[in-house]
Amino acid sequence: MARVGFEFEFATNMSNKEVKKKLKEKLGIQIKLGRKNWHLDDDVSIEPRRHITLSNSYDNGCELVSPPMRLDKALKVLKQVFEFMKEENIETNTTTGLHVNMDIGPTATRRIDGTKLIALVDEEKIAKRYSRSRKMYCLPRNSKIRLTVKYYDKLKNKPCSKKDYVKRWALTQEELEQKYTAINFIPRDKGYLEFRMIGNTDYQYKYTKIKNDIKHFAACMRKAADKQAGEKQLTRRLNQIVT
Helix, strand or coil for residue 98? Predict the structure, then answer.
């Protein structure tokens, strides 16, 4: 079973102290130190857009970080936090994201073929779904895969199958380890990956869409960790990527 953690970015007119108090009262969430606990951080990258009055504006950019949870529990908690955000009139906009941290077990997660995962997930399609395909903090890498496929298709003497060629040549290790991309592979050594392409304005109202994408991520991670699984699906994706 996959484990999932969240980083909810948002703006609010409440202070951090008020946010913590209401999280405890309404959801039983207590903010503590450590990755195994919930914590609330300031996020200066968030640009609040909403203003009520000069003395009561949405000037507090926050990041609420959850501990890792089993997938089924994580989806329930996700829905609860979204309801809290709606009730408290939390602001999400083009500068806010919902980062999803996932693992399928430390060993299997480290075994994931990065290029295969990117192609199976179709990170560009997911990013476009949330209007985040051009955001500098979560750029998709499908373009490099697309160019590699086009180059392979033009080769007269093909050295191997298309999928094997793409896995070998599409993305360098350095390109896979760039943080500000749709899927961040840097935490893989710690046993998890970060999916950064979900978010944007009013993402708290898109529970069903986000839930389905998270399940899709988990399924693709399992296939990308297995050299035999998902190979036919990968070939289909590579054939579709240039059309």
Answer: strand
